[in-house]
Specification:
Layout (H helix, E strand, L loop, with lengths): L4 E12 L2 E11 L3 E5 L6 H9 L6 E6 L3 E2 L12 E4 L11 H11 L5 H10 L19 H13 L5 E4 L8 H17 L5 E6 L2 H4 L5 E6 L2 E7 H7 E7 L3 H5 L4 E5 L2 E7 L11 E4 L3 H12 L5
Parallel strand pairs: 3-8, 3-9, 6-7, 7-8
Antiparallel strand pairs: 1-2, 1-4, 4-5, 9-10, 11-13, 11-14, 12-13
Helix pairs in contact: 3-4
């Protein structure tokens, strides 16, 4: 399959005391939802901030839409084409919703006031208190602040979204709503819209994830389309008597007195011949945990 990429990076590097983000090559496929997965401290937010232009002190080159690099970001009016949502003080705390709306209209030509207000209602930004644009950002919970940010970015005409942990402060119902919105955003773009998001809630976001990138210790340790990853890795279950032999073959394994369960590379399945095993298609969550465990300091 011939792919186009919405963002491409080469030799991205950012050093901190005791930690280095080092990514020789980075690509986000165009027209899909890509998830960035990794444990705390893996470097997800650092990478997100570099791609969003929040952090400009990293080494390497990044190209957007195969046209512009970071240096040309403002000259190319690229900010109109990319929407960003992230944690922290995204809006000044003393701003009201009305001021958020007004500033967004000034900053972005493609911001639609009516759509913003409709999304605020749809996402229950105002709770049960009705439509009140006088509410201050500081009065909102973390979850409501995230809903406000999502309403804001989805009210714009964009071609790509960079969402840093959008699901973390949301309740389960709103996470489901977020998935529906991401899916609609991509489908309405007819192959021209892309979403790149980081997440700790792999299970909640799996149903809308097309492509996955897994990070550990500042490096990409696995990536690919989810359908391909589910062919590369197989979930294997077997009897306790075979667990010692199986551990030599499996990528990762957990075991107890009754049996074992683990992830096996499909190419190594024949090494389990003769054992009484069952094979299943793993979830993205199971693949992610196995890959992170195999590459983390926790070891196997």
């Amino acid at each position: 399959m011939s792919l186009e990429y919405v963002i491409k990076g080469e030799n991205i590097e950012k050093k901190f005391k005791g930690f280095t983000l080092a990514i020789p090559e980075f690509k986000i496929p165009k027209g899909f939802a890509t998830a960035l997965i990794g444990e705390n401290g893996a470097g997800k937010s650092t990478l997100m901030n570099i791609l969003a232009g929040i952090r400009l002190d990293a080494k390497g080159t990044i190209r957007y839409f195969d046209e512009y690099d970071q240096v040309e970001r403002e000259n190319a009016n690229q900010k109109e084409r990319i929407g960003y949502v992230g944690p922290g003080h995204y809006y000044l705390p003393h701003w009201t919703v009305k001021q958020v709306e007004e500033v967004s209209g000034i900053m972005f030509e493609g911001f639609h006031k009516d759509k913003f207000e409709s999304l605020c209602q749809e996402l229950a930004v105002y709770g049960t208190g009705g439509f009140d644009k006088a509410k201050k950002v500081s009065s909102f919970s973390d979850g409501t602040k995230m809903k406000l940010m999502l309403a804001n970015v989805l009210a714009r005409d964009t071609e790509a979204l960079i969402l840093d942990e959008p699901a973390s402060p949301l309740d389960p119902l709103m996470r489901e709503k977020l998935c529906e919105m991401i899916q609609s955003y991509i489908e309405e773009g007819n192959g021209e819209r892309s979403v790149f998001f980081s997440t700790h809630n792999v299970s909640d976001m799996e149903n809308i994830t097309d492509y996955a990138i897994i990070m550990e210790h500042g490096k990409i340790v696995e990536e690919g389309f989810v359908v391909d990853l589910k062919e590369k890795y197989i979930l294997v279950k077997g009897d306790a008597e075979d667990k010692a032999k199986a551990k030599e073959v499996l990528y990762t394994m957990t075991a107890n007195n009754y049996g074992f369960e683990g992830i096996c590379l499909a190419e190594n399945l024949d090494k389990l011949a003769g054992m009484n095993i069952t094979k299943e298609i793993p979830s993205l969550y199971q693949i992610s945990v196995a890959v992170m465990k195999a590459n983390s300091m926790m070891g196997r």
